[in-house]
Amino acid sequence: MRHHIRFYLGQTLHEVSDISPTLTVLDWLREQQGQTGTKEGCNEGDCGACTIMTVRLESGQLTWRSVNACIQFLWMLDGAQLFTVEHLQNPDGSLHPVQQAMVDMHGSQCGFCTPGFVMSMVAYVQNGGGEDPKAINTALAGNLCRCTGYAPIVRAMQHACRIMVEQGNHFDVAKQNIILRLSALQDDSSVDIQSHCGRITLPASSNVLASVYLENPQATLVAGATDVGLWVTKHLRDLPHVISVRSAKDLHKLEQRDGGLWIGAAVTYTQAMPALATHLPDALETIKRIGSTQVRNAATVCGNIGNASPIGDGPPLFMAANTILHLRQGHIRRQIPLENYFLEYGKQDRQPSEFIEGIFIPDQSAQTVMRAYKVSKRFNQDISAIMAAFAISVGTDGTITQARLAFGGMAGIPCRAKMAEKALLGQKWDTPALEAARTAILNDFTPLTDMRGSAWYRSTVSANLLTRFFEETAQHGSGQPLRLEGWREISHA
Ligand SMILES: Cc1cc2nc3c(=O)[nH]c(=O)nc-3n(C[C@H](O)[C@H](O)[C@H](O)COP(=O)(O)OP(=O)(O)OC[C@H]3O[C@@H](n4cnc5c(N)ncnc54)[C@H](O)[C@@H]3O)c2cc1C
Ligand code: FES
Ligand code: FES
């Protein structure tokens, strides 16, 4: 058992044992290290001014991730190397190519957002990102600028990509050193830090997690902290004892198992994305719109379920895909259909000390068509007003054998439109079936009016999304679903 965390800030090793469970990386950098290059804008993961880059060893490979320092706790850096804008200049003192490109392409005015943009860009190029403006937009969707405008910033990014292909950069040169350093930080120890500020437990395995949580049911589980971080920065909550999910190595499993995809509780959206792209290709464009690159780099798939938000994007998607939730309390394990986890607003089928070990998404059959639609005021980096995920299976006789129509934003919990599903079962996938489902869905929900949409808007859009699903998947007149190659480009253009 270790009683301190250790990580590198730039080239300097830090071993820290006397820290609060809620000390954020941003506050530590600015207030305790005097490194004020990393800015504080919103303090809730939205603006990207606080973007930093963490480097970790994952399965022997270096991963370079941009994350929001304002909603990452310092203890989450255990085993990592952290780079901020202060660490970018070349050994000869000249600017990093990304910084130089921002100067050359006039990518900065007041400069407040600039360190965050630069760090997002540096992480993007370290991950092999190229000049494609669409990919650059995705990489920068979590960075807001109020004065320059984005065109010069994207041009700077493209310019930097060209320069780095030609010249490389000092992070590439230092890769072997970073691997050696980070390897030396890896061990199989759990960490327990108890101080006057509170307690921090980083279990090395799910077995340790299960037993610590059993003894401390009042503790707060923290995975990527993209929700929990806001409890601290916005609701000023104290967290006397935190237990890390992501420190448990075996919870990082992401694998194709017999009949489906297993996603362990520590797997982030960024890590899961390639597997989800294969497994649920029709949902990929929606998954890419969950938060921003920085958020997806930290946010776990299971944390998206654990928070049980009625407007989370993952739950409807995985419910439509017939996902099984794996829960564990001590040595006792159970499995439930994901939809049964959500009982009512703020209440889940989870016992004290019970945690999510992972989810299992069954392979989709060849007879199933699926689509997912996220409706939000902004395209990127916005919480959904409505999230819908639909899957229907059609038998050889052309009738619908299974319908799973799952929604977020329509009720206090993510849930299925059972009456609309019933209206579809046994029918051909044709216009009368669509009309019956459209009528039924209005009785499925009594949505709320809030800042994201009125009750009328939500009801209308939920029915219209069914029409969109029909238009994208039905072969008019045949009653058969259509698998149209390239539909994704059409529907997400
Ligand atoms: C700027 C921003 C944008 C966002 N945009 C979106 C969006 O577009 N769509 C969307 O759906 N969400 C969005 N979110 C919300 C959030 O990112 C997701 O819900 C995320 O997946 C949560 O995962 P996490 O690992 O960060 O969870 P954490 O914050 O670590 O935990 C969330 C909750 O789940 C519990 N928990 C975590 N792991 C487990 C476990 N293994 N077992 C039991 N309980 C557990 C925690 O105790 C906590 O209650 C956004 C958040 C931010 C800050
Ligand atoms: S300060 Fe805005 S994302 Fe962190
Ligand atoms: S340059 Fe002023 S906020 Fe971006």
From TrEMBL:
Pfam families reported in the protein's UniProt record: CO_deh_flav_C, FAD_binding_5, Fer2, Fer2_2
Keyword Ribosomal protein annotated: no
Domain of life according to the entry: Bacteria
InterPro entries referenced in this protein's UniProt entry, alphabetically: 2Fe-2S-bd (IPR002888), 2Fe-2S-bd_dom_sf (IPR036884), 2Fe-2S_ferredoxin-like_sf (IPR036010), 2Fe-2S_ferredoxin-type (IPR001041), 2Fe2S_fd_BS (IPR006058), Ald_Oxase/xanthine_DH-like (IPR016208), Beta-grasp_dom_sf (IPR012675), CO_DH_flav_C (IPR005107)
CDD domains per UniProt: fer2
UniProt GO molecular function: 2 iron, 2 sulfur cluster binding; FAD binding; iron ion binding; xanthine dehydrogenase activity
Annotated 2Fe-2S ferredoxin-type domain residues: 3-88
FAD-binding PCMH-type domain: residues covered: 193-410
Keyword Metal-binding in record: yes
Keyword field: FAD, Flavoprotein, Iron, Metal-binding, Oxidoreductase
PROSITE patterns on file: 2FE2S_FER_1, 2FE2S_FER_2, FAD_PCMH
Name recorded for this polypeptide: Xanthine dehydrogenase small subunit
Upper classification of the organism: Bacteria, Pseudomonadati, Pseudomonadota, Alphaproteobacteria, Acetobacterales
Encoding gene per record: xdhA
